[in-house]
Amino acid sequence: MVKKKDKPSINEKLKIEAAIELGFFEKAKNMGWDRLTAQETGKIGALVKKMLKDNRH
After folding, report:
1. Which end of the chain has fewer CB atoms at under 10 Å, N or C?
2. Domain range spanning residue 34?
3. What's the Cα-to-Cα distance from 33 to each of 1, 30, 39, 48, rounded to whole Å?
């Protein structure tokens, strides 16, 4: 049986939006999210936090 993919959560959408804004999305898409450096991941996390604080979702 094939598992149906769920819609991305709001956090997943924000992570993708932040990665696009910072220019890391292509790397994550091509190589996987686990291939991002700690610094890149931290920048994405900080931007997601700012987006949530500023109510940009």
Report:
1. N
2. 10-53
3. 26, 9, 13, 15
